[in-house]
Design goal:
Elements: H1 2-42, H2 47-52, H3 59-64, H4 71-76, H5 85-88, E1 103-106, E2 109-111, E3 119-123, E4 126-133, E5 145-151, H6 159-166, E6 170-175, H7 180-194, H8 199-203, E7 204-211, H9 225-229, H10 240-243, H11 251-254, H12 261-270, E8 276-279, E9 284-286, H13 290-300, E10 311-314, E11 317-320, H14 330-338, E12 342-344, H15 359-364, E13 373-377, E14 390-393, H16 412-420, E15 424-428, E16 433-435, H17 448-473
Parallel strand pairs: 5-6, 5-8, 6-7, 10-15, 11-16
Antiparallel strand pairs: 1-2, 3-4, 4-7, 8-14, 9-16, 10-14, 11-12, 13-15
Helix pairs in contact: 16-17
């Protein structure tokens, strides 16, 4: 009996102890749940906000057909308000997302402004000085298109002729490893302060980046943005080698570094505030008046624009003989083409890489002055090597940052992803790009080192990148590398 009593007593104590532990756990669970739900209620980007605007938050997705992205993911890309440059240097970004105004193109298409303020971020194996030297003027996200481009310090002389035609914001990333960093800053200051107009100062925001292993030398001070903006220079005292650094003087060229073209493209595009972006090359000059005529077309919202599929808007590309004035409209372009002064871009290098669908018909169409979609193409079959330059949005795929300019084919994986995602390429009837005057000859004799880089990059694309893309995005008939 004593043994039995002791056993019952022990069982009773264990039961009491277990019940006490259960009650304690339930109390703690209740406290945690209330705390968690309370923090959710105060978060400005939660389901409550989603319920307040259930339709408008999906309109961008419906318009561009990107059904693989959550609505809030798209909205977050625009949840950074626009503030002026001086304020951005001293004021932290606002977090009151829901209070920020929406800027509409149409009833169904809107965007939110970003914070445009200088910041230093790591991106893979690079340091990026984002918005390092900001433009003087600013725009709401629906007021314009941002021309996003890239360069090293030797290409900055293209900015003024580009801006004379573009007349809008430019987001420019500059690759500046080692001693090229301060070379770039000085060349940028010259373009801002000593050009024939205020176009560069008004419209261009510069982002500088360099490799982790190629920091600016310790003896060279890295200036703060506010110090650069407060600097004054005597333009007449600036030497030519400072204003326009020679190629042979660049750290990049002395040390034979490859140019990380896709890092540069992505930095410039992701830093743009506007909803529509125009990723292009700094030596390609757009047709005048493109921004207002394109936005007027978007606001009209013609039936062809209402397709649920993702879409971008293509500008055909041309090159022109040295010493010639650029055409200001399509009629001038066609006249110069008939005289043999203007030619399709890279006609002697890769004629099929830039020729748009219905090319012959496009070249005969000179009657319309209104911006419209001339035809809709796909990057399939005979156009599977097509490398169009287009106006798109932040929802479009980014470029593969493992690829360099020297290795070539750096945009081909990007084109494959767009093909698999069934993008429509809307060719514009009255928009075009003209390369900086001077027709590029065919590169017949390639140096051995260049051949090696091309071979290595081709192997990387075929052996690693394309299998990854096929695994992640799948395959589609007609889409290939």
């Amino acid at each position: 009996m004593d043994c039995c009593s002791r056993s019952l007593s022990m069982l009773y104590l264990k039961s009491i102890r277990g019940l006490w532990l259960l009650v304690t756990c339930l109390i703690l669970l209740g406290i945690f749940t209330r705390s968690f739900l309370g923090s959710e209620d105060t978060d400005e980007s939660t389901s409550e906000a989603r319920q307040r605007h259930p339709e408008t938050r999906v309109h961008i997705l419906q318009y561009f057909g990107n059904d693989k992205t959550e609505p809030d993911d798209v909205i977050r890309r625009f949840r950074r308000p626009q503030i002026d440059v001086a304020q951005s240097l001293s004021t932290p970004p606002s977090r009151n997302f829901e209070a920020r105004p929406k800027f509409h193109y149409t009833e169904d298409l809107f965007c939110l402004d970003k914070d445009i303020f200088p910041k230093i971020v790591e991106r893979g194996s690079y340091w990026v000085f984002q918005n390092y030297i900001p433009a003087q003027r600013s725009f709401h996200c629906n007021e314009t298109i941002t021309y996003t481009t890239h360069a090293d310090p030797t290409f900055l002389d293209n900015l003024e002729p580009l801006l004379e035609r573009w007349q809008g914001p430019v987001s420019l990333s500059v690759y500046a490893p080692g001693t090229d960093f301060n070379k770039a800053v000085k060349a940028i200051l010259y373009q801002r302060e000593c050009s024939h107009s205020n176009l560069v100062k008004d419209f261009v925001t510069f982002h500088l980046f360099f490799d982790h292993i190629h920091l600016p030398p310790s003896k060279e001070k890295i200036l703060k943005t506010k110090d650069i903006l407060n600097m004054t220079i005597q333009c007449e005292n600036v030497t030519s080698s400072v204003a326009f650094p020679p190629k042979e003087s660049l750290f990049k060229n002395i040390h034979e570094l490859t140019y990380p073209v896709n890092v540069a493209r992505n930095v410039a595009r992701e830093s743009a505030n506007s909803y529509f972006v125009f990723p292009s090359d700094i030596e390609l000059y757009p047709s005048p008046g493109l921004i207002p005529s394109f936005l007027a077309m978007i606001k009209r919202n013609d039936p062809i624009l209402r397709s649920p599929k993702p879409k971008v808007f293509v500008s055909p590309i041309f090159e022109i003989e040295s010493g010639q004035s650029l055409p200001n409209n399509k009629r001038d372009l066609l006249k110069l083409h008939s005289e043999g002064i203007v030619k399709p871009f890279h006609a002697s290098i890769c004629s099929h890489c830039h020729k748009v669908p219905k090319w012959n018909e496009w070249m005969k169409d000179s009657n319309s002055t209104k911006m419209e979609v001339f035809t809709v193409g796909k990057r399939v079959n005979e156009f599977h090597h097509w490398e169009p330059i287009f106006i798109g949005t932040h929802a479009d795929p980014l470029y593969d940052e493992r690829l360099s300019w020297e290795g070539q084919a750096d945009k081909m994986p990007h084109g494959y992803v767009m093909c698999v995602q069934d993008y429509e390429f809307h060719v514009l009837n009255n928009a075009f790009l003209v390369h900086k005057p001077g027709v590029k000859p065919r590169d017949v004799a390639r140096p051995l080192k260049k051949k090696q880089k091309i071979r290595q990059q081709t192997q990387l694309i075929k052996g690693r990148i394309m299998p990854e893309l096929k695994r992640i995005f799948g395959t589609k008939k007609g889409c290939s590398f």
